[in-house]
Design brief:
Blueprint (H helix, E strand, L loop, with lengths): L5 H5 L3 H22 L12 H16 L5 H20 L38 H9 L12 H13 L3 H5 L6 E3 L5 E7 L4 E7 L2 H17 L26 H14 L3 E2 L5 E2 L6 H14 L4 H8 L4 H7 L5 H11 L10 H5 L4 H9 L2 E3 L2 E3 L2 H5 L17 E2 L5 H20 L5 H7 L3 H19 L3 H17 L23
Antiparallel strand pairs: 1-2, 2-3, 4-5, 6-7, 7-8
The structure holds iron/sulfur cluster.
The site of iron/sulfur cluster has 12 residues, from loops.
Length: 496
Amino acid sequence: MGAGRDPRRYGKNIPNGLSDMILCLRYLSQSLVRSRQDDGADMAALGRSDIETFTQYVAHLAHTGEISAFRRTTVCRFTSRFLREIRDLGLTRPGEILADLPGDFALRRHDMPPVVIEEGPGRALPKEILSQLCERLPTLDQIRDGSDDARAAIEILVDTGRRPDEIGCLPWDCMETDEHGKSVLVYTDFKNNRIGLRLPIPDSTAEIIVRQKKAIRARFPDTKLSELVLFPQPRQNSEGTKPFRMQHIGNVHRRWINAIPPLLLADGTEFPKLEVVPYSYRHSYAQRHADAGTLPDVLRELMGHRSLQTTQGSYRVTEKRTRAAVDKLVSHQFDRHGNKIWTQARQLLEHEHARLRIGQVSVPYGICVEPSNVKAGGHGCPFRFRCVGCDHFRTDPSYLPELRTYLDTLLRDRERLAAASDLDAWARTEATPSDEEIKRIRTLIRRVETDLDGLTEDEREQIKDATRTLRKSRTVSLGMPGIRPPEPDLRLERDA
Ligand code: SF4
């Protein structure tokens, strides 16, 4: 049963493959108990009809949401493999323990359910559904096995888009701090056998991990830290060294999803709960980044795909034109000081490079790459939207009109406030735009204009075209301080 492969790929989790097969066979046993008066004890009486009843039984479980479509496929696959291998091992020969088992008690090819590809296209959850799920996370502890551990695991799944087994098997010591003091998750991509991968994570996710580490340490104070896992299997695990099984996460998640009120789409229609599986968070994560313009090579690295084609085929990467526009403008991005990002990015380490480009959300006069704000769709700025003073801010030529309008607004506000007589001095001081901010905006405008002036006519045309394309699809965070619609721009025509 692949015993030669498992140790290389799964290390300490070798027993999981075996126990998974036993758990799958449980469904066969349940089916026999339900459908046969002898509960399946009379081996010689088993036959084709029992196999058909079994496949209908697991199909029913999948339709009613007790198991996922993927699980249904796994159960059938493992059962088929088991029945085939007992024959290969000679256990059904005369005189052997399963000698009475009829030859037609086996799954044929057409008995197998359609293959469900875990990482298939179009399975990202709509944004509103994801928000409803996040709101209902606190109800997880009301269901069977819905512990704080399960909740933390699911929250990290949502935040990081890792595969369920990558989160379930995290060691206790799974987080590091990079050279900039930012947290990175260190995990293993079991599917591709890649160890020690580093994923930049937002502070909010790092806090969940820190809390979980403390709770686990307190629960297993005597276990060596190097052996402790972040999500210990709840039973038969006195040392805290056995990790969650993927199936445990799947089961708890399914019970929780079944227990929560209906999930509603923006138009008020109900979203099928069967489509919400732990892998959905991975797809949602990838789609979020694809929509935000993450470049395909970075997305491929993030998702652990071997080929770029898989990545590009799997996610609805916004139309090719938008993608090309993002590619074009990314090399003309500036940070808050007016320094070009692209020049710096090429010298960054791989994970820093990923951090720089994996997530961004539009803010009125640029882009925000602060992970928790990106995750919140631009509504979660931890710094009261002081973008031009923030290290997470970027801008490019497509925001030039907004930069100019913002500068006008600041200058006008400064004059108006200076003349106001109905304000206390402290209120006036607080409301008045600072000289530093005005200077910063001026610098940014100048840098972007100088950059454009240095381009050839042809390159400028390309930038204009990219700007038009991006402005059509751009949505600006509603949580930001508003600015007036931009004035007509002489340098960059636009459609918006
Ligand atoms: S200040 Fe602006 S750039 Fe910084 S985190 Fe907030 S929204 Fe993002």
